[in-house]
Specification:
The structure holds 2 protein chains of 2 kinds. Chain A has 16 helices and 2 strands. By secondary structure, chain A is mainly alpha-helical. Chain A has a two-stranded antiparallel ribbon. Chain A is globular and about 65 Å long. The longest helix of chain B has 19 residues, at 4-22. Helices cover 73% and strands 0% of the residues of chain B. Classes of the chains: A mainly alpha, B mainly alpha. At the A-B interface, helix 3, helix 4, helix 10 and helix 11 of A face helix 1, helix 2 and helix 3 of B.
């Protein structure tokens, strides 16, 4: 996949996620009917230009409502997005992922590709999903824990909203200071590490990753063409070895491995397409 | 089996969305999304 094409898709998706620019001038968030639909990426609905509802915020809001109702609608949309695209959404559609990609482009003398506990830290996002997004909002009413204590997209939305309506600056206190620290750390880390929030903290990425092996959109390796040169593994910034596990939980479908493969052994596919090995078998 | 799972997931998601729409859940999603979430922006 051409890097420029992916960049264009990401920029377009970010614009579509934030298509209602009026908020920047009025200091109010959008109230268009489109806000009853969840967007696929992580994009706070309190951003002045947000055109849709944040799926994680909506899920927590449903779970922590005063009168509990099973969140059929939000969960249905999340499963639909996951089943169709999986973490392709992270790689191509998520506005916060795009922001981290842009930050990683900032030159720094030493970029961190991997470190000792990297593998284990990846599991934190599943804990965040289970504890902050599901269990705690279920137990403590009217408290969206992930949004309140961790979500950097919300903090960014707050800052943008405050520039649109400066009265908000007076209301910022200790909680905002905490969230601003989290956002600051994530921004700094994004300059050094490729997509640290996606790798270690994002509950939406954790949810979509469960569909990488069960969804429609896949990646496949033509074992007849692959000679095990590891060019794909060396180029993967998410630390995946695509030739061994093309549908790994961590794969965000950025397609850099496809471009890097000298033998064109990797490609995007769907579950309905036959594997190259299957094709060969049926031809014989 | 590999091909059936995504189809089952999409059918389940469609059923869930339909059930949610029937229960009026898009309205509650809208109600939350159309007002500033104080917790999200670090005030609440």
């Amino acid at each position: 996949m051409d890097k420029k094409k992916r960049f264009a898709v990401q920029a377009l998706s970010t614009l579509l996620h934030n298509a209602d620019f009026r908020g920047f001038f009025t200091g109010r968030i959008s109230t268009s009917p489109a806000k009853s639909v969840c967007v696929p990426g992580l994009n706070c609905y309190s951003c002045p230009s947000a055109a849709g509802a944040c799926p994680i915020g909506s899920l927590q809001n449903s779970l922590s409502a005063q009168k509990f109702r099973f969140p059929y609608y939000v969960l249905g949309l999340l499963i639909f997005f996951g089943a169709v695209a999986g973490r392709f959404i992270c790689g191509f559609l998520c506005p916060f992922g795009f922001l981290q990609d842009l930050l990683y482009k900032i030159p720094f003398f030493k970029k961190i590709k991997s470190f000792r506990c990297d593998r284990y830290l990846r599991w934190i996002k599943y804990v965040v999903l289970l504890v902050l997004v599901i269990i705690l909002p279920l137990c403590v009413k009217l408290t969206p824990f992930f949004c309140k204590y961790l979500c950097p997209s919300g903090t960014l939305a707050g800052i943008l909203l405050a520039f649109s309506d400066t009265r908000l600056f007076d209301l910022f206190g200790t909680m905002f200071a905490w969230k601003a620290c989290v956002l600051g750390i994530i921004i700094l880390a994004s300059v050094l590490i490729f997509r640290p929030f996606c790798k270690y903290l994002c509950p939406l990425g954790a949810f979509y990753s469960l569909f990488n092996r069960a969804g429609v959109f896949r990646m496949s390796v033509d074992k007849n063409r692959c000679d095990g040169c590891s060019a794909c593994a060396k180029t993967c910034k998410m630390g995946v070895n695509p030739s061994e596990s093309p549908n790994a939980l961590e794969c965000i479908r950025c397609g850099e491995c496809i471009s890097a493969c000298p033998h064109s052994a990797l490609k995007y596919t769907t579950v309905f397409n036959k594997d190259p090995a299957e094709k060969e078998e049926s031809a014989q | 089996m590999k091909k059936i799972i995504p189809v089952i997931l999409i059918v389940i998601s469609a059923v869930l969305v339909a059930a949610g729409c029937a229960a009026g859940q898009p309205d509650s999603v809208f109600a939350k999304a159309a007002t500033v979430c104080l917790e999200c922006i670090g005030i609440g």
